Amino acid sequence: MIWLSVICVLIFIASSVLAVKIYLIKKDIASIDAEFYEILNGDTNGLITIDGRDKSVRRLAANLNLRLKELRSLRLKYEHGDLELKNAVANVSHDLRTPLTAIIGYLELLEKEKMSADAKRYTRIIVNRIETLKQLAEELFRYSVVTSPDYDSPKERLCVNAVLEECIAAHYSSLVKAGITPQIIMPEIPVYRVVNRVALTRIFSNLLGNAIKYSDGDLSITLTKECEISFSNTATKLTEVQVHRLFDRFYTVENARESTGLGLSISRVLAEKSGGEISAEYADKILTVTVSLPSAETD
Fold first, then answer.
1. What is the DSSP pairing of strand 192-195 with strand 220-223?
2. H or E element: which one contains 19?
3. Secondary structure percentages of the chain, helix, strand, coil, to 5
């Protein structure tokens, strides 16, 4: 009986020690998990710290710190390379605009000279192509500017209804040329948001241009009291895969080869900088792009 009691006591002590060790290990792992999440989701250069004595846990923390250092190094290289690319694009596109404008001016003067019908037709084709090239250069420049960390834009309290109406009116000739008569639904009361006027105008203009490019001839524009603006149109030439990539920078579908693929990327960046978001859905051959601008305390 004495030996049995001793064995029971030893088992109890061993179980207690094991339970305490398991508890401490779980506590250390929970601490590592919390620090790892904070480091990944926060703007910090810290590493995981651990006070536990368990060799396996300390080895785990050391390996995670090693991977964090490698990940941080790769991120810095990416950010530096991305910034260099944006600066290069901005410089190149800026330098292109001046000679392109001069070329267009000389071509317009040339059109006034006495030329054969074929020469005039060829000259007009050259002008149109250079205009397209100029627009692409401006779009590249605009993208590099709005994605810059230093980009800032003054905001003001605007009536979204009025800005949307102005953009639709500005695109009226393009809509008519494409055979589109938009169906517009707006609330009777004005919807206000504190945003940058140029940014909001650019968002709407890009979405209207996108609808003109992909529409089969219809377009529905809806503004809600909650400031959700949707652009819906039939787009049988698109696929779900293409729609999911519409906001990827430099992505273009086959029937939009004269585009840089930056219009919707710019719209997304501007929407996010305005505190909102933008998304696209594709169902039953209907493409719907929605901009949401939630209310803020300053509205």
1. unpaired
2. helix 2-41
3. 60, 10, 25
**What is the C-alpha separation between 109 and 21, in angstroms, rounded?**
87
Amino acid found at 4: L
pLDDT in tens, the chain (299 residues): 677 676 776 777 777 777 777 777 777 777 777 777 777 776 667 777 777 677 777 777 777 778 777 777 777 666 665 666 666 666 666 677 778 788 888 788 887 888 888 888 888 888 888 877 777 777 777 766 666 666 667 888 999 999 999 999 999 998 988 889 899 999 989 999 998 888 899 899 989 988 888 888 899 999 999 999 999 999 888 777 777 777 666 555 554 445 555 677 888 888 888 888 998 888 888 889 999 998 755 45
Q: Which two tokens stand for residue 213?
A: 């490019």
| C-alpha dihedral (20, 26, 29, 31), degrees to nearest 10 | -80
3-state SS assignment for residue 178: coil
- Across 20-59, b (16+ Cβ under 10 Å) vs e yields eeeeeeeebbebbeebbeebeeeeeeebbebebeeeebee
pTM of the model: 0.59
**Structural contact between residues 54 and 25, judged by C-beta atoms closer than 8 angstroms:** yes
Both tokens of 26, joined, read 């779980």
Q: At what angle do helices 2-41 and 55-111 cross, to 10 degrees?
A: 20
- Amino acid at the residue 137: A
Rounded Cα distance, 231 and 278, in Å: 11
Helix or strand run (H / E) with residue 223: strand 220-223
What is the C-alpha to C-alpha distance for residues 272 and 292, in angstroms, rounded to an integer?
Answer: 10
| 233, β-bridge pairs | 287
What would the DSSP string read from start to end of 246-271?
TTSTT---GGGTTS-S-HHHHHHHHH
